[in-house]
Amino acid sequence: MGAACSRRWRGVLVAGLLCAVCARAALADGGRLRFREAAGPFVVTLFTTPDPLTAGRADFSVAVEQAGKLVEDAQIDLILTRAEGPGGTLVVHATHAAATSRWLEAANFSLPAAGVWRVTVRVRRGAEAGACSGEVEVRAARAQPWMWDVLPVPLAGLLLLLHRNRKRKYRQKRRRQAERATARNGARAV
Predict the structure, then answer these.
(1) How many CB atoms lie within 10 A of CB 52?
(2) 87 CB-near residues (< 8 Å, 6+ apart)
(3) Could you give the CA distance from residue 150 to residue 8 in angstroms, rounded to a whole number?
């Protein structure tokens, strides 16, 4: 029982390592949840990618609900202003075309600088309108080595090969032990 239990835990460990290595590449539909606020008759949820949010290209995705149902025909504007220090104001319009999910509306644009940005989401649908605000921290852009995007795949393959090799060696060892035990029992019987 001890060896079988040990093998099982090794398998769980290998699976866990593979999940941990590959988890970096997993992304949700809209990105990281930044806030969920009431905006007049609407409830607005804001998601951003990348995570962490850095200066440069960004995706701000918005889900709008009214009376517990998703609203798909609202006009959504995002107004971004620097919360600290000098900086301009960005006004972008969110659309279904830019979204990664049919439930969201998104705006893809470039954040000009690091710092704390105040995000105001304005929603209009017919005669109804609402707005809500929150803050997001934008880090300075830094070059990320390309290898961190590619490395998990070969590393996962290497771990799988090492696991299979240990498993094969273990089986060979057990087979040799069984053969020796059979030979000893056969010699005693004679």
Answers:
(1) 10
(2) 81, 112, 113, 115
(3) 29
At a CB cut-off of 8 Å and minimum separation 6, what does 142 contact? 54
Closest C-alpha among 108, 72, 115 to residue 92: 108
Give the tens place of pLDDT for each residue, 5-36: 566 666 655 555 555 544 444 444 568 899 99
Residue whose entry in the numeric block shows the structure tokens 């060896």: 3
**How do residues 35-53 score in pLDDT, each as one tens digit?**
999 999 999 999 998 888 8
Cis peptide before 86 (omega within 30 of 0): no
Tally the residues of the chain: 190
Contact 20, 156 (CB under 8 A): no
The yes-or-no verdict on residue 144 having pLDDT over 50 is: yes
Residue range 25-138, CATH number: 2.60.40.3340
Amino acid (1-letter code) at residue 88:
G
Per-domain boundaries in the chain: 25-138, 144-180
Q: How far is CA 28 from CA 47, 48, 79, 137, 148, in A?
A: 10, 10, 24, 20, 19
